[in-house]
Design goal:
Protein Transport Mog1p, Chain A; 2 domains; 6-stranded antiparallel β-sheet; 18 strands
């Protein structure tokens, strides 16, 4: 009698095991059929092309850790789900400064730019160098009104970025200061800054140096001046790398005579230069 009871139980266990194997195989096949992006590789350096939410998991249902501002450079870190598709996007695990989380790839671009034919500006006094392409010229005598203590300005001169639009100037400006007042205020928002009176907290890492972001926008007589700056203290020096854009308000022009300049394209070009900044020692 006991043997007769054991056999059905054994058969039932075998049936459950067989069913589980079939279901697991089907699920596995389903997972493999989901599209996977191969846009990036482990360790790739990436840059945000617009303000981008970082989430706790690969999907829009996960909570937001922080928002990474446009122009920040991070690194793809190891995770078996990298490139996974969820909620209509492909997701990657990225490290931005002290923040580590998931971002959609739509607004991430590889920072791999061929700089082999770029020129190098080196400053031995303050111990840094930066590269710039033929689209730029170096100026040390023309200083934007909203920027002080300038060491060098790298002005974008390629006519393609200015033709028949409202852009007047786009530059990368490096300034340094080592007096006591400058050092004490280095990581504070400027008087005209959106962070006025605050300690700067938004980070951007450039070749191993942690900079802190500040932002100033001023307007006068139909002109607009935007400065997004990144400041850091190293070797008892306050260093600022600024992305400077001067444009004219579209309302100044007769309708249809000029177009709005492509700000995203210009900012990306300037950020390519900024990303080459490095210390010599």
């Amino acid at each position: 009698m006991r043997r007769m009871l054991i056999i059905p139980k054994l058969a039932m266990l075998l049936l459950i095991a067989s069913t589980w194997t079939v279901l697991s195989t089907a699920a596995s096949r389903e997972d493999r059929s989901r599209p996977i992006s191969t846009k990036f590789n482990l360790g790739d350096s990436v840059q945000t092309t617009k303000d981008l939410n970082m989430r706790r998991g690969p999907g829009t249902t996960y909570s937001i850790i922080t928002t990474i501002s446009s122009g920040n450079i991070g690194q793809i870190v190891d995770n078996e789900d990298n490139g996974i598709s969820a909620d209509g996007y492909f997701w990657w695990r990225v490290q931005f400064g002290n923040n580590n989380g998931w971002c959609v790839e739509n607004w991430l671009e590889s920072t791999k730019v061929d700089t082999s034919d770029w020129k190098i500006y080196r400053n031995e006094e303050y111990g840094f160098e930066i590269k710039y392409p033929k689209d730029f010229v170096v100026e040390t005598d023309t200083i934007p009104a909203v920027i002080r203590r300038v060491i060098a300005k790298f002005r974008l001169v390629n006519d393609r970025y200015y033709r028949k639009n409202n852009l007047v100037e786009a530059s990368v400006v490096i300034s340094v200061a080592k007096d006591k007042e400058a050092l004490s205020n280095c990581l504070q928002g400027e008087a005209m800054s959106v962070y006025k009176g605050q300690t700067l907290s938004e980070e951007r890492e450039i070749n191993g140096i942690t900079f802190y972001k500040d932002s100033v926008c001023e307007g006068a007589a139909g002109h607009q001046y935007e400065k997004t700056s990144y400041r850091a203290i190293y070797n008892n020096v306050c260093c600022e790398i600024a992305l400077f854009i001067h444009s004219i308000n579209m309302g100044v022009f007769d309708p249809g005579t000029v177009s709005e300049f492509n700000k995203d394209e210009v900012v990306e070009k300037l950020n390519q230069v900024i990303s080459t900044f490095r210390l010599l020692r």
